[in-house]
Amino acid sequence: MAATKLIAMHQNKGRSVMRCLKDRTDYAMNGEKTDEGKYISSYQCNPELVDLEFAQAKKEYLYKTWRQPKGDVIAYQIRQSFKPGEITPEEANKVGYEIGMRFTKGKHAFIVATHVDRAHIHNHIIFNSTNLECDRKFRDFWFSGIALQRLSDIICLEHGLSVIPKVKPSERQRRTKYPERVSIRDVIREDILKCLNQKPADFEELLKLLQAEGYEIKRGKHTAVCGKEQKRFIRFRSLGEDFTEENLKKVIAGEKEPPERNEKVPDRKEAKPEKRKFDLVVDIQEKMAQGKNGGYVQWAKKYNVKQFAESILFLQQRDIHDKETLDTLVDGSSAKYHELMKSIKDAEEKMAANKVIKTHIINYAKTRETYIAYRKSGYSKKFYEAHRDEITLHKAAKEAFSKLLDGKIPKVKDLNEEFARMFSEKKAAYSEYKKIKKEMRDYQIAKQNVESFYAAQQSWDIEEDMKKKRQQAR
User: Fold this and answer.
1) Residue 125 contacts by C-beta under 8 Å, 6 or more apart in sequence?
2) Is the Cβ–Cβ distance between 207 and 245 less than 8 Å?
3) Residue 299 parent element (H or E)
4) Contact 184/230 with Cβ under 8 angstroms?
């Protein structure tokens, strides 16, 4: 099941065409949303240079036709959202690519970026408004959205996916209750209550607790706070009567009851893990052998010292003070990483097999009547040639059923439930896999940097000893 939407992308006021294209394509190909670019495909363009190629096509169009329509559309975007648990990212990207090819008839370059950062997998298909020959533009015709949805339904059926059932407008359910919006002040109040639960000794300690939560404090006649997502400071007195400095001091002193929690404020999401502040050191001798000059060597020495310091700080923060502990953590994280990777691969193989069997069941049901007619015709060659594709699909399905272990053909509903279960398990394992992968890489880099540091230290000590011996010999 997939919901689609066609969006015309215009040039923003005060921005160049190139800038607008880059902003849109960069968002679509965001590494955090596409698993570091794993789920990106393209047609007749390079994803890394797509904004340049689209802009160049527009220049060629202007040169060939001398036409520049008012309110020109620079590109079109198709958003395609799938039902949670029904499809894998790989399959979703294939479906999106097929949508792009069939909707544009292969006449426009496009990229397909599959986002996996939400509960529902969805595609962003961006295609150039100028065709490949650079002599025509895509014409957004009447009811193009309906045509796109029908094409999406056809492709979903071909891939064994469900489609959105058609419902009369009078029978459609309307959402009458909308979720309440949570303001920045609501979040600040919630964090203040969280800090008050830690029983600070005075108002100054409360401010320190807020700083630990990521707030910036501005002291003065009216104390104010500023969070990470805020642009300006907000004074305590603007948070409400219960959150003024005077009343908060009374709450801390026990002279007043703390304010009640606002139930509409959701639980705060876990902060994303900080990006590693260090990387592998540079092999200066190797770079010098490649022809790097003295300026590069000076930079590399400073860079390596910084990496050594950050690596040592990383290990101290995790209470690692000896090589044995570090080796144990590296080996443990590596074993866990390979175990999770194997479980993800197994889940993907089972999901692929599930998909194949479901496709065969659907093909068998579609071609059953044709095959019965073929059998009644006495396996006529003329009938076979006229219905070759249907008969081939039917025979392939029967052969696949014969290879089932228990010989029993499962129901499509059971396969969908099994697929959803395996997909949720894979998603949970993949979340842990990314965390362990980062942890393993951090430990490995820190270990390698520390070993390089001590090896360099030993070579420096040996050089110093040699210099002292030469001086004594003189």
Assistant:
1) 77, 78, 79, 80, 96, 99, 100, 110, 111, 112, 113
2) no
3) helix 294-317
4) yes
Give a yes or no: residue 9 inside a domain: yes
Q: Is there a single domain that holds both residue 155 and residue 12?
A: yes
CB 185 within 8 A of CB 234: yes
Distance CA 116, CA 122 (A): 7
CA distance 456 to 441: 22
Please state the φ and ψ torsions of residue 336, each to the nearest 5 degrees.
-65, -40
345 found inside a domain: no
Tens of pLDDT along 364-419? 888 999 999 999 999 999 999 999 989 999 999 888 888 887 778 888 888 888 88
Tokens of 359: 């496709």
Contact 109, 75 (CB under 8 A): no
What's the pTM value of the predicted model, to 2 decimals? 0.45
Residue 152 belongs to domain with CATH number:
3.30.930.30
Residue 471: CB atoms within 10 A of its CB come to 8
- How many degrees, rounded to 5, is the angle at CA 438 between CA 434 and CA 443? 150
State the amino acid at position 445 in one-letter form: I
If one counts every other C-beta atom within 10 angstroms of the C-beta of residue 313, the result is: 13
